Amino acid sequence: xxxxxxxxxxxxxxxxxxxxxxxxxxxxxxxxxxxxxxxxxxxxxxxxxxxxxxxxxxxxxxxxxxxxxxxxxxxxxxxxxxxxxxxxxxxxxxxxxxxxxxxxxxxxxxxxxxxxxxxxxxxxxxxxxxxxxxxxxxxxxxxxxxxxxxxxxxxxxxxxxxxxxxxxxxxxxxxxxxxxxxxxxxxxxxxxxxxxxxxxxxxxxxxxxxxxxxxxxxxxxxxxx
Length: 225
Prior knowledge:
The protein is mostly helical. The protein has helices spanning 32-37, 41-53, 63-71, 77-84, 88-96, 100-120, 129-152, 155-168, 175-186, 192-202, 208-223; strands spanning 11-13, 25-27.
């Protein structure tokens, strides 16, 4: 997509440090739902799954909130669709080249691979080439998490890392993702605590002490030098 003038009211320029290479701006919309509704049905279905995966943290209710989220590094629908078309190897290459947004999408991609297996309690067999390759991707994603938090200072990075930690754990416990709302609040996401309250209501029995343990780990990763 070609670069567009910052003053163009129909487009929002993505901060240079938070761009997926090749995508410099995103279209304005009155809400996430309205933007998604303008897309083809297959894209709508994919983006609805993404929205649910991140428990509504990507949603915005007006253009002003959308601009704030773009500034904070939250991926917009165009960015999710562009990343979906990239092979995992290309996302990894872009991430290694320094793209913060590519790191977000790479970690998310790996979460999607390992999460269902951990939910079922399936193990990984390192003697099998495909399993070895997945273990390698898990290691790469894990190594990216701390730097992603520190370098981007994006509230959405907290959600990506929290979801990855949940996906990596046996049974996909909710506590790591619940902790990410606290980290996102610290990094400036205004709706984080409201959404955490909704998340905890949807996941009764969540262990409060485990949430704080995971939050402390996220803070340590963010503050590490």
